[in-house]
Amino acid sequence: MQNNFYFRLRYEASWSLMNKNGLALQILSDLEADLTHLNHCDFKIRRPIERLFDETLLMAKELNFLSQNRYIDLYDRLYQIKEQTNALFQCSKEDNDQPLSVCLDQEELVNDRLVGGKSSGIMALKHHFPDSVPNGFVLTTASYKKFLDENQLIDRIRLLFNNIDAISDQNQFKLRTETIRNWILSAKIPKSISESIKFNAQKFKEQSTAGWAVRSSATSEDSQFSFAGQFASKLYVPFEDLEDAYKYVLASKFTDRAVLYRLHCGFSEIDTPMAVLFMPMIDPAASGVIYTADPLHVESNQMIVNAVQGISEDLVQGKIEADVFILSRNRDPKLISSIPSEKKIKKDNKNDYISEQTISIVASLAYRAMEVFGHDMDIEWAVDYNGKVSLLQARRIHLATQEKIQENKGLKSAPPIVEAGITIFPGRAEGNVFFLSKEIDPKSVPKGSVVIVSEPTPELAVMLPNIAALIAQEGNVLGHLATLVREFSVPCIFQMGTQARLLYSANVVSLDATKRRVYTGSRWPNIKERVLTRIANASKHRKSGPLYDLVLSLNLLDPYSSSFKAINCRSIHDVVRFIHEMSVRTLFKIEDEQRGRKKMKYRLNTSLPIKFHLIDIDGCMPNDKALIEPEHIDSVPFKAFWHGMSNSKLHWPNHWDAQFAGLSNDFKEQVLGGTLGPRRPKDANYIMAGRDYININARLTYHYATIDAFVGKGHENNRINFRFRGGGASDENRGRRAMFLEIVLRQAGFGVDRRSDLVTSWFRRYPQKESENALEFLGKLMVCARQLDIKMKNDSDIKLYADYFIKENYDIFS
Amino acid sequence: MKLLNNILNPFIRKEKPIIEARIKVLRFRKFLENARTLMDLIEDGKEKLKEEYILDRSYISSLVDKVIENVRMLVFNACMLVPEGGEILYKEFDEHKILAQKDILNIISEKSISPKDKNESEEPEYRLLRNAVTWMIGPFSKLRPTVMDFIKQTFDHVIFGLSKFVYPQGIVSQLDLNKSGNDYHLDIIQLEENIILKNRKKLAINDIQCRPLGFMLMDNEKSMNIDTKSLSNQKNWFAAVSRDYLSLSTKNPQNIILLDAQLSGFVDSDFIFIFANKSITLENLLPKGFRVEKTNLGTMAWNYDTPKNIMENHLAYLSQKILKLYN
Amino acid sequence: MENRQLRIMVIDDEQIVGKRLKSALEKTGDIIETFEDGVKALERLNNHPFDIVVTDIRMDEIDGIEILEKVLAKSNQTKVIMITGYATVEMAREALAKGAFDFIAKPFKPNDLRAIIDKAAKELRKN
Per-residue pLDDT for A773 more than 70? Predict the structure, then answer.
């Protein structure tokens, strides 16, 4: 009885551990999205990390319970990570009480994340040029969050955005973005925000006779990512319409173009909050943009002023053309030349709306700004009818090295050869096709290849910095490699399925991971260069930051390397991965611990020539008899497995071990490694069963096979793990059998890892019916494979036997 | 731990005592979370039965599934905390599960259920939901334990087992103080580093960065001078502390009082849980708004979904009533 | 047009839903027709206009998404409200993207649905 309870508790511990593993991966995946755009101190970051730590600590305890404290080093590692993480959280505590609004002339420093890039630029400008920058106010990202929160929009938007990058249907995409915009437009503005708008706008009543300019100021806008021009503005807004204008600008965060852009850059949606800038409208006589360096001729030492009559909104949008003035680039700029817009040339209009003197004032202000900020800028400016110059917006110029996209139009009409899968990281790439099989070291993949694999395992991470794109036939979106793919920004498609085989014939392919399409040949020649640049910069582009390193980074990649140890875990992600790997290994070792205990009481009653001892975990077997009928075991996975094993078409020898009865002990010692070998000949077969669980350990002619499976309703927790090793034959033949197993298991949808004669295989997160079929399949496979190591004489037999097995022709296995 | 020690090889490494203690407190917190989820699920079922709701069979089966899953976690956490006698818990858990399968889930999966007879006014869905709620909280016509009874039994198992657990002296810091004429002695462990600011054996209140403990000792006199305390009347407590969490318990298995509180400022995770054994009428000591359940061993009380400032007041109030109760 | 009667169709293959909703929604004087069979409901829709269609999202014969598509194909004026159950949020997302007016998750109170119907009615009056 004590034994049974011990086994039950072990079973429950592994169940609990796997649950926690799923939860931990989910938290990690959410955190990854959120960390890009939330402050470390935000409770949406801090709480999941605390939770992650707690779950992982309990996982570590459960692993140690299963493994008899083999991994107690994990505790110290975890607490060290926690301490370091806590130190990072010490930042500013008031972060959670961020103001809803901020005045542009506020003296205290504000965070870009609070006011957005645009406002932050203006506030800095106002600080240095108080008289030349109009005052106004910002509704901060805290307002944005409150707005979404009080309208219960956060979850709804998340819902619509969940797999939006995987949508191929344009109409569906448009419908989703439109739905979100409508939600925002019809939402109610929280009272506190509404009051904040009124209060602030009243302060500038005199300056705002022409109404207000209401503009977006998104996080990251005007920073290293240029969101320029993606969001809407409203101009000449009367006081009473400010609330509607606010919603209008917020909704523009969800235009198709803006959404696509963020998807392309890998930003998570809801967590790129938007602040909105309110400035009294200046009714300008002239306005425009000044560049403190000529973006096209950096070396020319000239400044460029674009100007239009009236407001410059259409100019910025690219709808109208400006008059261009070129000035010398110094503290006292002089007009060098002017190029009137084409329209004016035609109409022979003279430039009468702005004086040369005013242009020089604009230019000298801009030059001083450049000096103050220490880099070149483009600045929006306006001049009112009294000649007063105002600076309205400023940002750093990204002086581009010629990177204009020239699409190869000729190829555009060719259809893709494959269109399938799930986008893991969006973007386009092209390169030579490289099929990476298990035998090939991922490090040897040529730079710039489009790599195709069957199962994306974390060991593949070593090649990610070097490849153009990755395609996997299978793959878990929440898995470790997916995380790494995003980290290295490799365009990537998972779950392409058998269609990936169509790429065998191709030499060079072009891949659009956003749309999940692959074309033959080189389609976007300039893409290749960009890919190579990315590869060259890979180390710089890595997401990093201390919190990222402590929580999300995955450093333990190869579970079979000597560095795969508890003390080498550097992040919580490492710890989770380590625990998961070790728990699976431990589950396969259960038999070692039951050796030496009292004889087990129950046995399976079967006419088949195999003996199984039974361990009942949760009362799924009758307890009044020592011999138990298979049909009396109330266990979903056992029934499925037994259904396969007792299939009447299978061939059994008279006795399981008959073929080896005559072998000498010396031979057994030599081949099986004696008591150090994978299984001692005297070990019993046993099945530990519960209603939705089995752990089977079978000795089948000197090899051992183990199954650990949980199969129940739903599919999230379902899993089947299978291991197979050893045999009485030569290394070569055991290897052949392992290859046979790999082929048929893959065919049946299992993931497989094969190392010499050890085959590890898994089938996870499938619905009950599929999982039952997989177990039935394993039952048959275990019988048929039992002496293939003797039967298969050469390599061509592998495929032959695999074909027979797949076609359910079992006679050849007799 | 006798059972586990029998099974575990004596040469096996063991975690540090402080880690063992921390994991115990954490697992107990998870145990309380399971219980809270269960109470919410049960309330939800009751609510759906009371009022006119549009529901279908999948609601009922998912409710029952969630209850089973959470009870399973509750039992697992209970057995990890106190392994001795855990097999009885599992045996009973399996019985509850089988009963739910038979009386509720199997019937739901037979797609075509019809009213027992045409005259019956109640829709079959509501009959099933009634079965589910009866399975959870009764009343049963036969004398048979409900899920709720089982949850309470599991609590008794854990609380009684834990009351015998003593923090090893090597890992505790000590706090002596005088409050409203009583002398107190607390053995304190920190659940993570840097909660206790000063590295000294005898602490002052301000050395401890624990919000819930802070509110309990708030209105308090200074730490007392050790020389002047009267040992005979001293009240002894254990406290495990982190910034937001306090787990406080008596040091005497005959007189169990246990208080766990989380005070992080986030309403959905904050709570106060108190248990007191039978000799105390806990109901009379509680501020308003606590949910009270009687078990064989004593009384437990919960407070959650309460704003931060009210919880702070609750803690201050409770400290007046509870700290002085036992030696 | 101010407060005219609404013609509302309720489709759910669970008998209890139609039965309870009919009696609850009729209280405000609107015209309610209930169907357990999606195919029959679509037939009825073909020769009879409805202002609002409330349909369960997961049904055996024909699912709610299909009904949504057919209803909108016929008249994009009709407001379609989806009833979702446990574990069907995925489908709710799809439905919203395909033009459903809103969705409500089971279990719910008839008044919760009433609120959504009122919102839909307001939209209808706008057009």
Answer: yes
Give the domain extent around C71.
Answer: 28-109
Contact (Cβ atoms closer than 8 angstroms) between residue B92 and residue B78: no
Percent of chain B clearing pLDDT 70 (strictly above): 87
Per DSSP bridges, beta strands B257-262 and B245-250 are antiparallel
Which residue among B52, B58, B125 places its CB closest to the CB of C85?
B58
| 8-state DSSP, C2 | T
Residue C49 lies in a domain: yes
Neighbours of C54 (CB within 10 A): 28
Distances (CA, A) of A505 to A439, A469, B135: 20, 18, 62
Token pair belonging to A762 = 């898994």
| pLDDT tens sequence across B205-242 | 778 889 899 888 876 554 444 444 455 567 889 999 99
Q: Which residues 67-126 in chain C show a CB within 8 A of chain A?
A: 89, 92-93, 96-99
Whole-number Å distance between alpha carbons of A471 and A660: 46
For A320: left if phi > 0, alpha if psi spans -120 to 50, otherwise beta; the answer is beta
In this prediction, residue B68 carries a pLDDT of 93
Domains, chain A, with CATH or none: 2-94+560-587 (1.20.120), 98-280 (3.30.1490.20), 284-384 (3.30.470.20), 412-544 (3.50.30.10), 596-813 (no CATH)
pLDDT, average across residues A20-40 = 75
- Residues in chain A with CB shorter than 8 Å from the CB of C91 are none
Residue C61 placed within a domain: yes
| Number of compact structural domains in chain C | 1
pLDDT score of A71 more than 80: yes
Of B278 and C125, more confident: B278
Q: Of the spans A301-315, A558-572, C103-117, which averages the highest pLDDT?
A: C103-117
In chain C, which residues have their Cβ closer than 8 Å to the Cβ of A172?
Answer: 97-98
Pairwise CB contact (< 8 Å): A159 & C93? yes
Write out pLDDT tens, residues B283-308: 999 999 999 999 999 999 999 999 88
Determine phi and psi for B73, rounding to 5 degrees.
-65, -40
Contact B57 C14 (CB under 8 A): yes
DSSP string, A219-277: TTTTSSS--TT-S-EEEEE-GGGHHHHHHHHHHGGGSHHHHHHHHHHT--STTS-EEEE
CATH number (domain holding residue C94): 3.40.50.2300
Does pLDDT of B46 surpass 70? Answer: yes
Q: Tokens for B203, please give them.
A: 């602490």
Q: Which residue of C has its CA nearest to A178?
A: C97
Is residue C19 assigned to a domain? no
The three-state secondary structure class of A334 is coil
Helices (H) and strands (E) in chain A, counts: 25, 28
**pLDDT class of A658 with cuts at 50, 70, 90:** very low
Residue A379 clears pLDDT 80, i.e. is over it: yes
- Spatial distance between the Cα atoms of C125 and A380, rounded to a whole number of angstroms: 44
CA atoms of A523 and A510, how far apart (whole Å): 6
Is residue C2 one of the residues assigned to a domain?
A: no
Beta strands in C12-126 (DSSP E): 31-35, 52-56, 79-84, 102-105
Please report how many Cα atoms fall inside a 13 Å half-sphere around the Cα of residue B180, on the Cβ side: 12
Min Cα distance C89 → chain A (Å) is 8
CB-CB neighbors (< 8 A) of A57 in chain B: 23, 26
CA gap B212, B195 in Å, rounded? 13
Minimal C-alpha gap between B127 and chain A (Å): 23
